[in-house]
Specification:
Elements: E1 5-9, H1 15-24, E2 28-32, H2 36-44, E3 48-49, H3 53-59, E4 62-65, H4 70-78, H5 83-86, E5 92-95, H6 101-114, E6 117-120, E7 123-124, H7 126-132, E8 135-140, H8 143-153, E9 157-163, H9 167-195, H10 200-207, H11 215-225, H12 235-252, H13 257-271, H14 283-290
Parallel strand pairs: 1-2, 1-4, 2-3, 4-5, 5-6, 8-9
Antiparallel strand pairs: 7-8
Helix pairs in contact: 1-7, 9-12, 9-13, 9-14, 10-11, 12-13
This protein binds nicotinamide-adenine-dinucleotide.
Length: 299
């Protein structure tokens, strides 16, 4: 498959920069989204416009989806007008959305029955990683399909084969436990410090130099204390991930007590109408309980 044509479905916060990086690497990309704005943006960057899922699938050798949630992927991949119903023999389908591992397994099985290849390949690294092409890509599927997909993954980030179909989504669930729990921990630490009268910007700076330093503090610490909660990664999507995680805990018989509290904190954000906030905006749920707003001190 030399220089395959790539169909990219789902041109949101992540899909747009990922498409642009594929274009920069010299691939022909056909973009499609439910909303024209995403298509127009990637067409301006050199992509071709798709008119439907079926249209993109029929015109492409590799089809990538980057959609919000499990039902979206079920509809787009498995629906009557979807990718699997229209995929050409020999094509490769890669779902890079974060969805349920069992759906990823189902897609892998169906692909096998149809004689095509599929990979689950969710990512970590956020909108910044998508823009810089430095995503961590967690892949589930066969070795052969993984090898075939490596040149396509390369402009978007670093891919690692984690195991069979669904394994990429399992590893992504593990990732989202750590990210969610860390955000909640940072939120509690800053809320405590701020209510006790310390400048939260100072706390971020000092903690970033010690054992507590982490990606959340490094990438988002200043944005949290500046109260910039523009997404990034939306609370409603992290809540979706926490639901996937809790279902995985049920399926595999693993108590996830810390995760269950973080699940409920994200649920609080949805109930409060703040699902569109960046996930670092979770601090507002902690602040409410403490009766304080965490803000950096004036210079
Ligand atoms: P988003 O909501 O910004 O983008 C999703 C896009 O999919 C939207 O443009 C939407 O219109 C489109 N879409 C939905 N249904 C469609 C359909 N039937 N046909 C065509 N297009 C359709 O979401 P995002 O932030 O880009 O996230 C996408 C996925 O990546 C999610 O599963 C998310 O959990 C995961 N993810 C996001 C981030 C992040 O920082 N934003 C990081 C890692 C992983």
């Amino acid at each position: 498959m030399s220089n395959p044509t790539i169909g990219f479905i789902g041109l949101g916060i992540m899909g747009r920069p990922m498409t642009k990086n594929l274009l920069k690497a010299g691939f022909t990309v056909i973009g499609y989204d439910l909303f024209p704005a995403g298509i127009e943006e990637v067409v301006a960057a050199g992509a071709k416009a798709g008119t439907s899922i079926a249209d993109v699938t029929k015109r492409s050798d590799v089809i990538i989806t980057m959609l919000p949630d499990t039902p979206d992927v079920e509809k787009v991949a498995l629906g009557p007008d979807g990718v699997m119903a229209n995929i050409k023999p020999g094509s490769l389908y890669i779902d890079m959305s974060t969805v349920s591992p069992t759906v990823a397994e189902q897609i892998g099985k169906l692909a096998g029955e149809k004689g095509v290849e599929a990979l689950d390949a969710p990512v970590s690294g956020g909108d910044v990683g998508a823009q810089k092409g430095t995503l961590s890509i967690m892949v589930g599927g066969t070795e052969a399909a993984f090898e075939r997909a490596l040149p396509v993954f390369a402009p978007m980030g670093k891919a690692t084969l984690c195991g069979k179909h669904g394994a990429g989504q399992v590893v992504k669930a593990c990732n989202q436990i750590l990210v969610g729990v860390t955000i909640a921990g940072v939120a509690e630490a800053l809320t405590l410090g701020a209510k006790a009268g310390v400048d939260p910007a100072k706390i971020v700076q000092v903690l970033g130099g010690g054992l507590a330093r982490c990606g959340i503090l490094e990438n988002r610490g200043q944005r949290i204390v500046s109260r910039d909660f523009n997404p990034g990664f939306r609370c409603r999507l992290h809540y979706k991930d926490m639901r996937i995680i809790m279902a995985a805990g049920q399926a595999y018989g693993v108590p996830l007590m810390v995760s269950s509290i973080v699940h409920d904190l994200f649920k609080r954000m949805i109930v409060a109408g703040r699902g569109e906030y960046d996930h670092t905006g979770l601090i507002t749920a902690v602040e409410e309980m403490a009766g304080i707003e965490v803000k950096k001190h004036e210079e």
